[in-house]
Design goal:
The structure holds two protein chains of two kinds.
Chain A: H1 13-48, H2 52-57, H3 72-79, H4 88-119, H5 125-134, H6 144-154, H7 160-183, H8 188-196, H9 201-212, H10 214-229, H11 233-238, H12 247-257, H13 262-295
Chain B: H1 3-6, H2 17-54, E1 57-58, E2 67-68, H3 72-79, H4 94-120, H5 126-134, H6 141-151, H7 160-168, H8 183-208, H9 212-220, H10 225-236, H11 238-254, H12 257-262, H13 274-284, H14 288-319
Antiparallel strand pairs in B: 1-2
Classes of the chains: A mainly alpha, B mainly alpha.
């Protein structure tokens, strides 16, 4: 085929030149876009290592070769308890306390449900599953007043437990959706042979389904972890106690009180980014796999 | 049909199989789904019902259904200047701003995502370029707000955008977040920066999955790179493009924390969007009913998208 219709090979000088130019334009475009996405956060990163005086004197883009570098911003933000109380070190601990249970709980509960939706039969199963998928688009704005009322009645407002439960409820539709779609693709023979050997559903779930689902559970764990770690609104609304505030709330308060103290804002922001960036760089492939599994179907 | 799949593998002669099977069928699966259903009921299903109820009442956060007021919250909302301006043009109002977000944000994210997916595919440093665009997706909207307040800072010695603006133009620095006619565009810019990585990832996977023979055939027939892209690649990627667009429309409607942290709806209410109005009416003005009415409107706007997603999934299952 290729010999029948010869593909145009650039032979003349002019053609080679246009090839070179379009290759150059391509690199220019890709590098330009990458810079467009990199520069905003790069500026803040550079700023987080400059002294307050240096920041006030000159733009970060002129900082190379000049003095005024410091790590003091980070020690200040982490040790001063007054900016804003209880301080960023406590905010960091609170973020962990909020995020870890809020990641584990929904995955466990969703995995159980997803197994039933994939491999058990009960009346209304498919309709209930579709109903759960429909819940995916519910804006959380709709839930705040009623959930807060329930929490007030149960004295859960301002407690970590309340926030854990809320994040679990909010995370379930996506978790069930993702896991059920994965479980259902597992080969049927796997289940049949196990059942013939007399294995219970629980045994099949623990010994066969879970081990095979490690990659998808890892993707899900990353999503849920980041979603909770990065959450501002639910922490703001359900955890009204400032002593329990996570990093996102801490940064918002810092912006409110010290909106022009860029040495503090920049280092505070990067402290809150440290964990997500760590997760991203160590687990990047699970990320991409999870996104494409959730969105693109074959 | 697939009794063996769920199978209770018992000797047929010792147990009345059908009866036992039915009893198992009745309660066992429910134990597996019950914790999930209970939490979903408390945190998502009941709140929807309750919020619709509360939207017909005048009340506070503590006492949301103090007094029945019928449709007052809705009429108040739809005639309030900051939600739906009828007299001033252009109407910088929550509904109008949300529409602006849906159109501009969605098209910019899909456009950029597609552009990067296709261009990066042809360079050797594709992974690095894509990782850079992806990064904003993992940080919080709160941290992104700090990034962009810094970029947009009015002082040209601090904000890069104003440094560039004052260099290339003879004009004074612009308070990018402080002008009613600009603020929505600058906020949308930050949101596009955050979400393009998601579109890029999905569209890149779809682009790489295109059958090479078809693209090759187009090329052999003398189509230019642009023609191949426009007439062959894009139509074949229609499915994933729509999926991304619908996801982004949902994100645009739900958006809130970026607006709350960057501008708190200002200046003078000009950057309010519907999702933000819900929060502001409930928690800043302590008007649970009015906020709930805005939430119900948000929900109504979501219904076509919900319907679309459900159809997708049912179709997917029918095909499988």
């Amino acid at each position: 085929m290729k010999t029948a219709v010869a593909p145009p090979v650039p032979t003349s000088l002019g053609e080679r030149l246009t090839g070179r130019v379009s290759k150059g334009a391509l690199h220019l475009a890709v590098v330009g876009i990458a810079l467009l996405w990199l520069v905003p956060s790069l500026g803040l990163l550079v700023t987080s290592f400059r002294t307050r005086a240096a920041i006030a004197q000159s733009g970060w883009w002129t900082a190379v070769g000049k003095g005024g570098w410091t790590v003091d911003n980070y020690t200040q933000v982490l040790t001063r308890g007054d900016l804003p109380p209880p301080g960023f070190a406590s905010n960091f601990v609170n973020s962990l306390v909020i995020t870890v249970p809020s990641t584990i709980l929904p995955i466990v509960i969703a995995a159980l449900a997803a197994y039933a939706f994939a491999w058990m039969r009960f009346p209304g199963r498919d309709w209930i599953f579709l109903g759960i998928v429909a819940l995916l688009v519910i804006p959380l704005q709709v839930t705040w007043v009623p959930v807060l009322q329930i929490f007030n009645r149960l004295r859960l407002t301002g407690s970590f437990l309340g926030l854990w439960l809320a994040h679990t409820g909010y995370g379930l539709p996506f978790a069930i959706f993702l896991l059920r779609n994965f479980f259902v693709q597992l080969p049927r023979e796997l289940f049949e042979s196990a059942k013939v050997d007399g294995a219970s559903d629980l045994k099949v779930f623990l010994r066969i389904v879970l081990p095979l689902s490690v990659p998808v559970i890892a993707s899900l764990a990353i999503f849920q972890f980041l979603w909770v770690w990065n959450d501002l609104m639910n922490a703001l609304i359900y955890l009204q106690d400032p002593g329990k505030a996570p990093l996102t709330v801490g940064i918002r308060n810092l912006l409110g009180q010290y909106g022009n103290e860029w040495h503090l804002l920049a280092s505070g922001a990067f402290i809150s980014l440290s964990i997500p960036l760590l997760v991203f760089f160590s687990l990047q492939r699970y990320f991409v796999r999870g996104i494409t599994a959730g969105a693109v179907k074959g | 049909m697939s009794l063996s799949a769920r199978g209770v593998a018992l000797p047929l002669e010792t147990r009345p199989r059908a009866a036992r099977q039915r009893r198992t069928r009745n309660w066992r699966p429910w134990v597996w789904v019950l914790p999930a259903l209970a939490l979903l009921a408390v945190f998502l299903v009941w709140p929807v019902v309750r919020t619709v109820w509360v939207s017909f009442y005048d009340g506070t956060i503590i006492n949301p259904d103090r007094e029945f007021v019928g449709l007052d919250n809705y009429t108040e909302l739809l005639t309030a200047d900051q939600f739906f301006v009828r007299y001033n043009l252009p109407p910088w109002s929550a509904l109008f701003n949300s529409a602006l977000w849906v159109v501009l944000f969605t098209s910019a994210v899909v456009g950029f995502g597609l552009l990067i997916a296709v261009l990066a595919d042809r360079v050797r440093y594709e992974r690095v370029a894509k990782a850079i665009v992806f990064l904003p997706l993992v940080i919080s909207a709160t941290a992104a707000s700090v990034v962009f307040r810094f970029l947009y800072a009015a002082d040209p010695e601090i904000g890069l955008l104003n440094a560039m603006w004052t260099t290339i133009s003879p004009f004074a620095p612009v308070p990018w977040l402080g002008r009613p006619e600009l603020v929505n565009f600058t906020l949308i810019g930050a949101a596009v920066w955050i979400w393009t990585g998601l579109a890029m990832t999905i569209l890149s996977a779809a682009y790489k999955a295109l059958p090479q023979e078809v693209l090759e055939a187009a090329r052999v027939d003398g189509a230019t790179a642009w023609q191949t892209f426009r007439r062959v690649s894009i139509p074949m990627m229609k499915g994933p493009i729509i999926v991304v667009a619908v996801t982004m429309i949902i994100n645009a409607l739900k958006a809130i924390d970026l607006v709350l942290v960057m501008t708190a709806g200002g200046p003078r209410g000009s950057s309010r969007i519907v999702g933000f109005t819900v929060f502001w009416e409930i928690f800043n003005n302590n008007k649970a009913g009015k906020g709930s009415a805005a939430a119900v409107l948000l929900l109504v706007l979501m219904i076509p998208l919900m319907w679309y997603q459900l159809r997708q999934i049912r179709g997917e299952r029918g095909g499988a």
